[in-house]
Amino acid sequence: MEVTEIRISISDDKKTKAYVSITFDNILVVHGVKILDGKKGIFIAMPSKRIGDRFRDLVHPLNTEFRSIIQEKVLSEYKKMSQGRNDVEQVTCVCQSNS
What we know:
Elements: E1 3-10, E2 16-24, E3 28-38, E4 41-45, E5 48-51, E6 54-57, H1 64-82, E7 90-93
Antiparallel strand pairs: 1-2, 1-7, 2-3, 3-4, 5-6
């Protein structure tokens, strides 16, 4: 499964840096991914729902390798977008497949 498109919308919130939609193989879109600023730096959080006092992921990779691939691509595009472009509110990246 390849990431074929990433859409990033900047947030005004201090902790939530952006909201992301990721398209896989041009056939599946996952909305509600967040770029968060944590104690150890920025990272992505998959879409989740509050159940009682906990949050549960609605969608998530089944292994750390695929999670790392998604996080690297999303954060790479976010960093490119945020460098010197404070006036940008949304960006779309059409990612090229490595295969």
